[in-house]
């Protein structure tokens, strides 16, 4: 009798200890928001190897921690041009530890402004072995910026609010995006983000673009707690100098947050072959117009949100393995080109797959993809979504460079030349997308 009672006590004690350690199903959905400064210190490299000499607007990392009573998930958008390899893993690992979750449940996506850093740690390791390597971001700064992220995530996880509904919406974006891969006089050319200075390039039709900005709103009833916006275009009006700036998307996002008093996060979609080049002549007026039109789309989309019960959360991870190009030679490379080749050489030797994820809530699914995917992959995701509302973020681990289609390799041009992957990637990435959608 005594032995039986003691076994029961031990059993109950064990259950109580387990309950204290692990959140229980039925605790409900909760969300916490965070923002941290990610502006490089003066002298640290901006895109490629140019040192920062001026800050126009702060660079931020903004995101959410979501708890479903079983696990925690972190998604964030970083105002950098790109972060990849071991550096990307550093960001994710620190955020995971701060949230009390596994790194597989953390996705950090760059917004891809070109007035911001482009840091691939594996490339740094290779570059350090070259004679007279160019400027690299210091380990001390990387520790500080990832520590700031971790502290912001920790505070968000400690101050979460319950939510029970998810809003989905979209709005047309007018006179912002245009296809980059265009034909001029029968020849394939790149309509870069500053191409509006050339009247002939500006006159070429928009071409294949993302027509609508998509918004997913997490809410308590119909009271919005956070807006997550997704749109596919290069968020770039200038490039590759010592000025740090969140550019047009940062301007639009922060204005929307100030006016609505609701936390706003912006993710860049599959925009590897989409820019603002048709509408950007590099003037202040052009930049302000682009930001204003993007902000109007954010407002219109938010205003049109239709809410549904959040239901249960589903998170999927699917590894992406691509055929890699051979490592390049460093012969004749100088300055910035040394860094570019070091990134390519590091990826040629990489064995770790590229991470992808999807988060499903209340009839909406968010996809998080690596590299710089072209628009075709976003269109493919939407076409295979069935009745679900799908929003796609590119620019996770940037180490792979561009993710293009097989026909792009055949056609040539800039994007396939700047990819670290080989033909055959298209079928593999589309299979990953189907699995992320639960297909």
What is the CA-based Rg, rounded? Answer: 22 Å
The secondary-structure class comes to: alpha/beta
| Approximate strand percentage | 25-35%
| Secondary structure tally, helices | 12
- Give start-end ranges of low-pLDDT stretches: 1-26
Largest sheet: 5 strands, mixed
Helical amount among residues, as a percent range?
A: 25-40%
* Average pLDDT: 93
Distance between the termini: 54 Å
The largest sheet has its strands arranged as 6-4-3-1-8
Commentary on this structure:
This protein has 439 residues and is α/β, with parallel strands linked by helices. The chain is built from 12 helices and 24 strands. The strands form 8 sheets. It has a 5-stranded mixed beta sheet, covered by helices on one side. A 5-stranded mixed beta sheet has the order 16-14-13-9-18. The protein has a 4-stranded mixed beta sheet with strand order 19-20-21-23, with helices on one face. Helix 2 packs parallel to helix 4, helix 3 packs across helix 8 and helix 6 crosses helix 7. The N and C termini lie far apart (54 Å). The N terminus is likely disordered.
